[in-house]
Amino acid sequence: MIEITWPDGRVTIFDGTIEQFGHKLDECWRLDKQEYQTRLLFPGTQWEVAAQKDIDKVKESIMKDKDEYGKNVLERSENFLRTFDYNLIIGKTDEETREIASPLIKNILA
After folding, report:
1. Pseudo-torsion of CA 73, 74, 77, 78, nearest 10°?
2. Do residues 43 and 54 both lie within one domain?
3. Short-list 11, 9, 15, CA closest to 30
4. Which of 5, 25, 42, 54 minimizes the number of CB atoms within 10 Å of its CB?
């Protein structure tokens, strides 16, 4: 899940893993933060950003794993997030955003 704050102050949540919680990806992959919290979080759940130490622990676990796929996906994902030009999708519809980002994201999972 990625939280993006746009130049106009809007906050959008991109969640490419939403299907694992029973939600339809094509309906919920990109939502305003308020809508994400209202529609998708369990009642009473607090919005919480993972502590850096927890993030580091997960990364360390992935990097120690003998499975190279996880390591490759992690490295490619981090590179994508660092280098993607988010200006390309400002103001775009879901469909336009998919057309722009999908080919790039497929490279992460290849």
Report:
1. -160
2. no
3. 15
4. 42
Q: Which domain holds residue 74?
A: 50-110
For residues 39-66, give the mean pLDDT.
77
CB of 34 closer than 8 Å to CB of 47: no
Write down the residue that tokens 């009642």 correspond to: 43
Please give the model's pTM, rounded to 2 decimal places: 0.56
Measured distance CA(14)–CA(100) in Å, rounded: 14
Residue 49, pLDDT score:
64
67 and 99 fall within a common domain? yes
Task: Enter the tokens of residue 11.
Answer: 């906050």
CB 100 within 8 A of CB 89: yes
Tell whether 67 and 87 lie within a shared domain: yes
Do 99 and 109 lie in one domain? The reply is: yes
